[in-house]
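re: ur question from the group chat, yeah i did fold both. here u go
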Amino acid sequence: MIHLPFTRTPRAGDVNRGDVRIPDGPPPRSAVVVVHGFKGFKDWGFFPWVAEALVGAGYAVVSFNFSRNGIGSDPGRFTELDRFGANTLSLEQEELRSVVAETLDGDLLPQRPAAVALLGHSRGGGQAILAAGQEERVGALVTWAAVSYFDRWTEETKAEWRADGRMWVRNQRTGEDMPVDVALLEDFEANRDRLDVTATAARIQAPWLILHGSEDMSVWPGEAATLARANAVARLQFIVGAGHTFEATHPFQGPTLQLEQAMDLTVAHLHRHLEP
């Protein structure tokens, strides 16, 4: 396997740090862009394993950090909490669509691929849905534990958020309280229609596999059913006994049975619709 890091600057002061993984031998015909979620990053837990499994299945893989996900040059620690606080959904979508376009055009790969798929987890699944709904060249979509909506705050929380200008969310893994500026709420409210995940789901033309753990306590499994109802051709599969991360942890301790099942279903879906 060939592993090539890359950086891109979507705007002044912001950096996407990413990785391209390519099978040895002739360049593959198809690529997969992997999208992390809220409080996630490209090197979290199962993501490197997922990327290597996709390479083993014959695909080029592009994974990256959103520029304001809080991870800087130290790949495993949140060292940029002010940048994390300044993130917005629109900035993430802009960056994802740019990475997808650069992958489709061959700018991030040795040669231009014939097809590109998206694989998104949690909030990254919602972002992948939005991108697939806008980019007709996306050849396949897989979402893991994807959100069906971004507006996940009570009216009381919103009022306090506006009054204080910032709220804090606990990272259960690290124990850190992480800031989220009111700019994220203002961006969502100003772009509510464009950031409507379920409405966008209805417009997706690419073959779509929805995977969700039956025991997910972070994103209710009913959200997967909502997405499936919105799109007549989407296929929904629940992973029995799986939580939000398919029982995988960070640091990664190896694949679980639930994670392996999700990966097997993902590869089968990609093979059905994309040529490696």
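okk and heres the other one u asked abt
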Amino acid sequence: MLERLNQEDLCKQFCADVKLHRRTDDKVMLETPFTFPDGDQYALYLEETRTGGIRLSDGGTTLIQLSYENDTDKLFEGARSTLFEQIIGEQGIQFDDNSGQFFVETNVQDLSKAAFQLGQAMTRVHDLTFLNRSRVASTFYDDLKEHLCDLLPRENVKQNFLVPGLPNADHYPVDFCFEGKAGVPVFLFGIPNRDKARLATICLQYFLQNQVDFDSVLVFQNQEEIPRGDLSRLSNVGGEQISSLNAEDDFRRKILKKAA
């Protein structure tokens, strides 16, 4: 079968799925077979640049699509922001902060290449929405901090806190610390996986052995994914537990109960 395949036939097949639609605003819409997960086709727009080239953009539709079910501001914060910038750099495209458009400047000869560049970038940006609390530990901590600061003044939340006067305190950092009832600090540990469960257990045991006066809260990415033995050891030394960030009512109730 492969011996019957030739470039001319292949080009015809690709061209059959690509159409140009001229609009009244001097822009041309490029219809391609690329689609978002909901089935909507990618909207790619062509317009002439002042230098005689072509600007190919998504018209801001990528962020509009994401905004239906996501907070797009998160794309520009923490770990997601780093990945966002990485995608733009790797795909050789640009992003206009004012209009929210992804675009690439090209010419007629390289238009097909540019369309693939931009289409792949749009797909990768859309995939950033999969970086949610149940998948990526780095964004779990971003989300955890956001949840805390929604309930408590940001200046009262100390991240990567080191216990004053504790020997080798830099070996036992606390994810987040805030003032609790009666002046007792509350140490909050985020637990995205088994390894962090074990590390938190070691830290809490060390604090207890050194008679540190503290209260504690353990927030899991998904408590059900922590092996029973590790969870049992952590429970022996830890305080309040919140099964996941999705348990928003439980999170709010337990944090506000502890906070001063």
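fwiw on the second one: Residues 137-258 form a domain with the Trna Endonuclease; Chain: A, domain 1 fold (CATH 3.40.1350). The CA atoms of residues 39 and 85 lie 26 Å apart. idk if thats what u expected
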